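SAMPLE LOG
Freezer: B-3
Tube label: C17
Construct: single chain, 158 aa
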Amino acid sequence: MHLRLAVATDAGAVAQLFHDAIRALSAGDYSSEQIEAWAGVPEAARWRDRIADQNREFWVAEVDDALAGFCDFEPDGHVDMLYVSPDHARRGVATALLHQIHESAASLGLTRLYTEASITARPLFEKHGFLVLESQDVNVRGTPLRNYRMEKKLQPEG
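STRUCTURE (predicted):
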């Protein structure tokens, strides 16, 4: 597995992975209506803008030159997105991406990470030391979806 910062030419593959991951991996946790609202239609332009945003680190994981997962991380400790391809689920991709986020957080001297995890992602984040602060229902394209505000306190280096 190889981790690297995303580039604009990754946008199409990222858009498709996002769409596929939600449809395949979250179907047991959300209704078909919720899946449709959340996954939407793969739009490369939206992802190109996110990748180009200088106020976030956007990492991709590759396995055998194929996109296996991605995450984006904001300098205040917000883990905004973490998705893994259905073909690479439960093979350490999300863990590797979270380790990269921890390295980035340490280099910034952060004392906490936080996220809004889906029902599907909550066990992964809990496994890596995140605690649930509260559940919440968010509106995605007119459809309510349950997720969890979570945080992890970090040890300062030194």
